[in-house]
């Protein structure tokens, strides 16, 4: 059953690849993502995209998933630590968290889904980012990221009852 749940969440995320902002952190679909995390339009939306995907998968599966619906990456990290599901290495379906400088502080600042794992990298589906440094509005994209110390992985499926 866990594999089906993970595949459903990833299928929801995959179907959104290509959705783009209409302007800075705004757009019809982006507003839906933010609403899933109870945030107003114009806010950063990477973690809100994750929340929206979980909400959509819940509706399809008719199953409650325990992951918090938040637009704030540190909240996801705190929940994962409390549940004992924050990992150092990726697995398909995990939510990745990227650690780095956000404003004047260092914290988890970006999130998305792990769609596959390679020997030294992981593939993602993530929102509020750009493909390969391209110009233009942020979007939901598929990227490849290196496995490095600045990433942690929320193994949320282990918290599903």
What does this structure look like?
This protein has helices at residues 2-15, 28-36, 46-61, 73-83, and strands spanning 86-87, 95-102, 105-117, 121-129, 139-146, 151-154. Strands 1-6-2-3-4-5 form a 6-stranded antiparallel β-sheet. The longest helix is centred in the first third of the chain and has 16 residues, at 46-61. The chain is built from 4 helices and 6 strands. A hairpin with a 3-residue loop joins β3 (105-117) and β4. With 161 residues, the chain is α+β, with helices and mostly antiparallel strands. It has one domain (2-159): endopeptidase fold (from Nostoc punctiforme), CATH 3.90.1720. The termini are close together. α1 (2-15) crosses α3 (46-61) and α2 packs across α3 (46-61).
Which key terms come to mind for this protein?
161 residues; endopeptidase fold (from Nostoc punctiforme); six-stranded antiparallel β-sheet; 31% helix
Q: In the CATH hierarchy, what is the class?
A: Alpha Beta
The number of domains: 1
Order of strands, widest sheet = 1-6-2-3-4-5
Q: Please give the radius of gyration in angstroms.
A: 14 Å
Count the E strands: 6
- The CATH topology label is endopeptidase fold (from Nostoc punctiforme)
Secondary-structure map with pairings?
Blueprint: H1 2-15, H2 28-36, H3 46-61, H4 73-83, E1 86-87, E2 95-102, E3 105-117, E4 121-129, E5 139-146, E6 151-154
Antiparallel strand pairs: 1-6, 2-3, 2-6, 3-4, 4-5
Helix pairs in contact: 1-3, 2-3
């Amino acid at each position: 059953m866990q594999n089906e749940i993970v595949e459903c969440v990833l299928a929801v995320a995959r179907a959104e690849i290509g959705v783009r902002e209409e302007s800075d952190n705004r757009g019809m679909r982006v507003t839906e993502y933010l609403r899933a995390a109870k945030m107003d339009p114009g806010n950063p939306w990477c973690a809100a995209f994750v929340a929206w995907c979980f909400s959509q998968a819940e509706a399809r599966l008719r199953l409650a998933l325990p992951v918090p619906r938040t637009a704030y990456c540190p909240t996801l990290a705190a929940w994962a630590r409390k549940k004992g599901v924050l990992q150092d290495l990726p697995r398909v379906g995990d939510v990745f968290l990227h650690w780095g400088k956000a404003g004047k502080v260092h914290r988890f600042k970006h999130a998305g889904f792990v769609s596959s794992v390679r020997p030294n990298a992981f593939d993602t589906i993530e929102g509020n980012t750009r493909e390969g440094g391209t110009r233009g509005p942020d979007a939901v994209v598929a990227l490849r990221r290196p496995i490095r110390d600045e990433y942690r992985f929320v193994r949320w499926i282990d918290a599903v009852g």
